[in-house]
Amino acid sequence: MHSQTELGVKHVNSLLFKYSVPAIIGMLVNALYNVIDRMFIGKIPGVGPLAITGLGITMPIATIILAFGMLIGIGTTTNISIKLGQKKNYEAEVLLGNAVTLSLIIGIILTIIGIIFSEDILILFGASENTLIYAKTYIDIILVGSVVNLLSFSLYHSIRADGNPRISSGIMILGCILNASLDYLFIFIFNLGIQGAALATIIAQCVTAILTILYYLSKKSNLKIRKNNLILRKDLVISTFAIGMSPFFMQLAASLVQVISNNALRTYGGDLAIGAMTTISSIAMIFLMPIFGLNQGAQPIIGYNYGAKKYNRVKKAYLMSLSVATIILFIGTFFIQMYPKFFIGLFNKDEELMKISIQGIRIYLFMMPIVGISITGSNFIQSIGKAKIAMLLSLLRQVILLIPFILILPQFLGLNGVWLSQALADLISTILTIIVLYKELRSYKILNDEGEDILKAELEEYALEKESDKDEK
């Protein structure tokens, strides 16, 4: 009762801190999982620039695998939460068992199709004769690990729904540390090159999958993986896919953008331009992931208070999350623009790659200080139940504006046109988001009186509950 009541009465700033910090840590760990991999690959002696370019070419395939992970993982986790709330524990366990089976089936299909057609797919995705060998060596190993990749992603997410977010975060952090340690061991001690990076990734994912399965077989879990629940139930599979379909298609759209971007980069800047983009996107990820964590923390606060008609608290929660996001992005942009060589040097110090990357990062991330409005704004609109508008705002920045810009601008501006595409998409999507936000927040002035009366009543009730708890102790 208290955890729900506090969302409507406790100070918004302290609620945002409480709910956001764990999510921010989780998102940063998730980002480091990928970023550290790229740092090690970029520094492989003699071939680092081409190796990181090869990795960049495989990113659309990795994004497609992630899309299926989200289809199963987010769909399963959300449905488990709903079933547990309805006291339908048996169906929650069947959902868990079905997630294991779906991960196995889809993972095997992705492995078979991916390995058979990997060379053709990579050439289509922007590989050249120089980079194909690195891309194929890396992705073939990653594809072999598709099953454990999907298992680890879908199951550690569902641990949160089972009521143990700390264990879920702990498993993720352990996987990240193991991946980084094995990267160093395989690449620099055993001299396995990009093959070592791929092996490190799937071993870490394998350990994560084993730990999540062991959790569900232990006494710590409320739900259990049972043999009879591995048989797929059509209604539960449909409900899982129905919820997971939105993030699934968003990731597929992201993969399409990566393919178009890779081909434009190769056409107008050569192989190393793809390596530069891989480096730039990794640096951006470090600063953008905390914003996504902030969104996760703000979502329940905004949603609860909107449902309770406490519009002043809704507005305050959003503006506070926007302020924090903007501060983070302003600081990040300042250091990136002032010291680009330092950040790019974390991944590779090759002179030609450095030159392309410095020019690219300054244009590509030029609008980063204002992009927090777009990212937090679409999350805010989604949190108040306007999912279609939220989806449109999100797609504007990542797909609807970006793809035409990537196709058109380089024809006039060359490689700079590719870098400028993201900055322009950020600018226009932010302006449109501001218009939507202004209309939404302005309407709250009329609605606030009723919310204030509800807040006063709930504050009194909350105070009485806390007093009662003290007396009982």
TrEMBL record:
GO cellular component: plasma membrane
Membrane-spanning parts: 16-36, 48-74, 95-117, 137-159, 171-190, 196-217, 237-260, 272-296, 317-336, 356-377, 389-413, 419-438
Topology class, membrane: Multi-pass membrane protein
InterPro entries, alphabetized: MATE_fam, MATE_MepA-like, MATE_MepA_subfamily, MdtK-like
Keywords, in A-Z order: Antibiotic resistance, Cell membrane, Membrane, Transmembrane, Transmembrane helix, Transport
A biological-process GO annotation: response to antibiotic
Domain of life, per lineage: Bacteria
MF (Gene Ontology): antiporter activity; xenobiotic transmembrane transporter activity
Compartment(s) where it occurs, according to its Swiss-Prot or TrEMBL record: Cell membrane
NCBIfam families, A to Z: matE
Family according to the record: Belongs to the multi antimicrobial extrusion (MATE) (TC 2.A.66.1) family. MepA subfamily.
Entry protein name: Multidrug export protein MepA
Organism, scientific name: Romboutsia hominis
